Write the structure tokens for this entry.
Amino acid sequence: MVTVMKDGFLQSQSFLLFSFCLSFSFMISFVLYLGDGNSKISSVYINNTHGVDDDDFYDRNLALFEEEMDTRPKVSSLLSRLANYTNLTQGAKEHEEAESIGEKKKASKSPQMGTFMGVYLPCLQNIFGVILFLRLTWVVGTAGILQALCIVFICCCCTMLTAISMSAIATNGVVPAGGSYFMISRSLGPEFGGAVGLCFYLGTTFAGALYILGAVEILVYIAPKAAIFEGEGAAMLNNMRIYGTIFLLLMSLLVFVGVKYVNKLASIFLACVIVSIISIYVGALVSAFKEPHFPVCMLGNRTINSHDVKTTFLWKHFCQGPELNASCDEYFKANNFTEITGIPGLASGIIAENLWSSYLSKGDVLEKRSLSSSHISHPTSAHHPYVFSDITTSFTLLVGIFFPSVTGIMAGSNRSGDLKDAQRSIPIGTILAILTTSLVYLSNVVLFGACIEGVVLRDKFGDSVKGNLVVGTLAWPSPWVIVIGSFFSTCGAGLQSLTGAPRLLQAIAKDNIIPFLRVFGHGKANGEPTWALLLTALIAELGILIASLDLVAPILTMFFLMCYLFVNLACALQTLLRTPNWRPRFSYYHWTLSFLGMTICLALMFISSWYYAIVAMVIAGMIYKYIEYHGAEKEWGDGIRGLSLSAARYALLRLEEGPPHTKNWRPQVLVLLKLDEDAHVKSPRLLTFASQLKAGKGLTIVGTVVSGNFLQSYGEALAAEQTLKHLMDKERVKGFCQCIVAQKPREGISHMIQSSGLGGMKPNTVVMGWPHAWRQSDDPQTWKTFINTVRVTTAAHLALLVPKNISLFPSNSEPCTEGYIDVWWIVHDGGMLMLLPFLLRQHKVWRKCAMRIFTVAQMEDNSIQMKKDLATFLYHLRIEADVEVVEMHDSDISAYTYERTLMMEQRSQMLRQMRLSKSDREREAQLVKDRNSMLRLTSIGSDDDDDTDGGERDRMTWTKEKTSQYRATHSGCSTPEGFRDMLSIRDHSNVRRMHTAVKLNEVIVNKSHDARLVLLNMPGPPRNPDGDENYMEFLEVLTEGLERVLLVRGGGSEVITIYS
């Protein structure tokens, strides 16, 4: 019955390589006929533009930031837009644009699938397949139990290591639908992503062909007489092709009608698989007490085909006539017929015979070595009723045939868009599924070897047991449980492949990285990929025309192994690069495990079939070069682009192509140091802080400005550069020095900011010190230069870090044993406040410090919802921190605020109109400072005293009546005549700004007085230069009472993302 399949493999092999290459060329020619689609527009950064109410600009508590609210929104506004992550486009606007500009998106339901239903069961269904039921017994019988265990163990180790790498990538941010293609393309770039994505697509398509061929082969066991063509070899292969084509048409039609029907049938198919596996275990246990009746007929030690075992039948095949004296086969005359038990059972001890391998060549007879026979060197004939080996077997061949039975580990990541918590479900569900299937495979290898006779195991099609499915002979209560269950499971797996492959092709087409595939991004009105399904069915038909499960299996083995290889490469590369965005929530990974997985994948590719491996690599290389030279350019923040940052000329030229992606953003620091008269650095701790922030990664440029003319000061500039180099060596900072000679320091700093760096290696962050004792300084250019630098960095779209009290910052030899790094997130300006503590905690000095994030809620904000949204936002950022929302109510402006503002304006006018000597100026500054301190204590005491009655409170509140009364009562004071008008505050916007500074400072000091470091949004300088001195006063008030403060201004671009 099934033996007619054996002699047709030679013809099938000649057709194989032609079909394999034709599948790729046919795809290209087909899509060129269909035409191109529309291109897409991509954007890199989050669009921060949004409507801002006019009231926000005059918020009393945030007046310091009111001039920049259009580009730096309040945290509450940002969180309200990011709270519902399902409303974000796939990959967000900073990652990918939506399918088309202006397309209205339908409201999607919130994903609710958990680990068990969303990952574990789909992985089980995709891993268990046709090989388990049709070929695992044959693999055990041919390779022996020991080598079969080795094959299963190697393949399972490969998928386990790949699953670990995949879990790290999948938990490094939100992974939209797209599975392995999305992970590889976003980690290794569009070239690798497109090449491996198409290979994975071809592998999934050929997997559909494999499952269909398996279903047809099982159909032969169900209906042996269903053959259309009678005969052997090519006739049987033609039956496979015809039935396979019919099955393919029916399955494609079902997928086209609706995927919902496929999903509804998936649970039924999975139940069939589970029932079939359970029946194997039950049958193995039952066989220990009662042997199933499956006798095997033997001639000597040779296995006889037992379809029609009759005396006349055997005599006819071994003798030349019916007479007793007719000439007969010599082996037939010298040996006797015996009957052995096909299923000796678990307690029979047959496991000892099945431990060792028994590889055969094509045409060899299956023999039982433990049976005695007359060794007559008489050639066997094909017309003898023996059971023959249909294919030459070897260890490498069995690896290629078995490996498809462990694929399917990407089923969970492919459903990431439907999971409630993908970052938790994907690692747990995938690894548990691999452990479960590995245990099933390994235990089945031992059970098959311990229960079934060796010649029956090596009988691929069950000819020795009357055409029964070999694994079915062990099943309980009937072989039909396995036959029916395996048939439906293979049909279900084929439907899953025909469902997943078109969507994978559609995802590649929509990314627009391969122009000639654009047409496959379109489909029906409901989004079903019609054109992609048609191409998938045509390519699957090429696999069906091969008509041999044993020859199709190595093809998809190559494609899956190549996909797994690049998943491991992506994880290893990201780990070694240590990009700031690489923060997987799954922490049980290591680059050595990824490299081990790569090595196993590459070895298995060449072990199973070296020529298939070369063809698959050539196809992937062709796609890679095509995308590189003719494809659409994409910037996804991939690892290859991150690696190019450390390359030489080639990397610099590539970095010139555009700004770095958010995921590749790391602080490229320009540290501005000031030298004293003796050419010594005034604040060396600035460089120490920069080294703690950088941790030896990225670009560091240390610069200073020497006043004078370049021609006369060249030697002084060289000396200053040497000083900086010595300091860098001392602090172990790897970077570059830059010294600029200019007439004015502010001009030199501006030139340095404009000219530093080369190509893509330009600074994006400026670190400068706070002008110490600027109030007492006799040279106002000190703080004016500081404010000018703030304006220059803002104009250049660079981030700015200003450590205040830098001398109190810890050195590299003074690690903090405990404490907090507090982040006060008041306005959103790119995420610098989130990223900086993470980078600092990578250094040993700050490693043991915990992170706290505070944000400010106004009266109109829902503080509870803000805290919840902020916690969700940090969860998706993979940043661990305590969250607290501080409520700031709209209180009346206190007397202390008015008095502080008045003193500020009064001092400013005095210094502007009077030429005081240095001693007088210091005395005036000290007088103002002492007065401020007394007023501060009085104001704080009044605010904190809950028992104060309304009358006392009214004295500390400035109303119109109080203001008039104050002016009237103080008009005759002993103030000089020229300063009487200064008692009235000229600019009431200064009052609002001072109110913001005072209120924020009170809250910050109250919450963060014990913090090791406080990070705070730095307000922008006033647009009118006349208020520069007031701006310095606002910053002083804002940071009073804090030991270590880091003022932070973003550069206007996003530096942190929740996406992978």
